[in-house]
Amino acid sequence: xxxxxxxxxxxxxxxxxxxxxxxxxxxxxxxxxxxxxxxxxxxxxxxxxxxxxxxxxxxxxxxxxxxxxxxxxxxxxxxxxxxxxxxxxxxxxxxxxxxxxxxxxxxxxxxxxxxxxxxxxxxxxxxxxxxxxxxxxxxxxxxxxxxxxxxxxxxxxxxxxxxxxxxxxxxxxxxxxxxxxxxxxxxxxxxxxxxxxxxxxxxxxxxxxxxxxxxxxxxxxxxxxxxxxxxxxxxxxxxxxxxxxxxxxxxxxxxxxxxxxxxxxxxxxxxxxxxxxxxxxxxxxxxxxxxxxxxxxxxxxxxxxxxxxxxxxxxxxxxxxxxxxxxxxxxxxxxxxxxxxxxxxxxxxxxxxxxxxxxxxxxxxxxxxxxxxxxxxxxxxxxxxxxxxxxxxxxxxxxxxxxxxxxxxxxxxxxxxxxxxxxxxxxxxxxxxxxxxxxxxxxxxxxxxxxxxxxxxxxxxxxxxxxxxxxxxxxxxxxxxxxxxxxxxxxxxxxxxxxxxxxxxxxxxxxxxxxxxxxxxxxxxxxxxxxxxxxxxxxxxxxxxxxxxxxxxxxxxxxxxxxxxxxxxxxxxxxxxx
Length: 578
Fold this sequence. Notes:
By secondary structure, this protein is mainly alpha-helical. 61% of the residues lie in helices and 3% in strands. The chain is built from 24 helices and 6 strands. It has a two-stranded antiparallel sheet with strand order 1-2.
């Protein structure tokens, strides 16, 4: 899929912004200019690129949650805290993730923006969201390492490949797919879905016939650490913290949801259902997988021991043995490998988007999304070689304190601040209109995560340690609107956007405008008026400009800069310009 707004593919170096309005047009490196690979990694996804159906986008997004880390996480929670507390933890975390995911998913799908761009306009500011890019990037490489470890364990079981070499192979195998972008990812998810569904369902069908009493025994399981079968508030809090580490998964769902077509009267039911399913709906499947993984591990515990029971491949083999016999090992290995490829192409893809966002703002350079694939995978490979799988609970419990503070702050802005007028009704993500830092969301996240991390390390006692993630969520939920109210919403917009101002007739947002810097046409939401260039500038050129001194925010022009007449498919559009 191509777009008329694709930058030139010349390999010439970028024109320096300090050269002034008369400088040659900026040219992007070949990989950065190829949107079939770049997928609008740092900008708004235009309507002309969003040609997939709601069902296709949703199917691709849900294909990315095929991961088996849920099996390991669920088994680890139940083994540590017992069935009753573990079940309550998994369900509570799922409810929180679902509720916070609804407004974020709808915003990303409606505005064609990824999680970073939504965060910018939902209370964090242009540079304020830079820190969340690192939080999100760490989510992708932590879970890539976790999923890669599971895949390496499967290859070790199946063919005896040393896990150290397995780590390397699991890293290298995803690169050709992720390199190609959304189109390749959609194909991989569709082609592998039948194998994954069969592999996911079959072990539980076998257990239903061969071990019908397993669920009853599982319900009275007290864990392997002496927690006991009863309910414990401390165990519930700690277990919920581990399960909540998955809250940032909504970011990976958003990386697909931004390609959702526009919502219309004709498709609104399918659109709403697809966004709900592919956005927060992933956690319903995720929670079921956590419980299912814990059940398989419980059934296999006596046969393989605790260490191997926590590795998804071993319980899978034990469950299939009654029906498949000697074929159980290759069948289980195939399922695990397919599952891990499905999720790790998503982890690597989302990580490349996040690193691109981070470094473009810090360095004002954009070599292309694909180069950051290698950075993300290098960090993940290092974590695998360090055997991060052995410290699963502690690592995920710590991470969730930061992740939930960020996600809840964004959700609070979208649901509360925008509905009561403390925040603009739309998502403004362009540097030209944003303050560097908005204390509403950014301040809420920093305060909430700091307090919750101190609680996590036991500074405030046992119960505060157990419920540190609840502290993070509660503080973010309260502080984001409170700070926005205290600052009167001042830090959301550095200057008004003339297109979105009060009383302005809504223009045709699919109309394209030619960027004065790269001389390429982009749809209206991706364009800002630039007093330095005396014309329109696209959001990416604006981000990369390090010589303008942010004049537009410090000394706004008396009125909007007139832009060239927009065009749609080569025809002039009369009326409102951007």
